[in-house]
Write a structure and sequence with these properties.
3 helices, 0% strand, mainly alpha
Length: 80
């Protein structure tokens, strides 16, 4: 990975850690959300969401449409 990508990843990771230290402004129910130990922590959920969004955007960078814009979506809508 190049230097810019490493720097960006470190910045993003540190911002997610800051958000996870005080998640109240970012959740619907601060007294309940992300309080159970067996559930995924806030930091992990944020990293997963960003990873999934990056995968979706990567397809658009290479000229591929989002999954909901392809022919399958049109076919599915006509069946409704």
């Amino acid at each position: 990975m190049n230097e810019y990508a490493n720097s960006l990843k470190q910045t993003l990771t540190s911002l997610i850690r800051e958000m996870s230290a005080a998640p109240a402004p970012y959740v619907k129910s601060p007294e309940k959300d992300f309080t159970r130990k067996k559930k995924l922590p806030f930091e992990t959920v944020m990293q997963l969401l960003i990873s999934m969004m990056a995968t979706a955007y990567q397809g658009t960078l290479y000229g591929r449409p989002f999954p909901h814009q392809g022919q399958n979506h049109c076919y599915g809508r006509s069946r409704l």
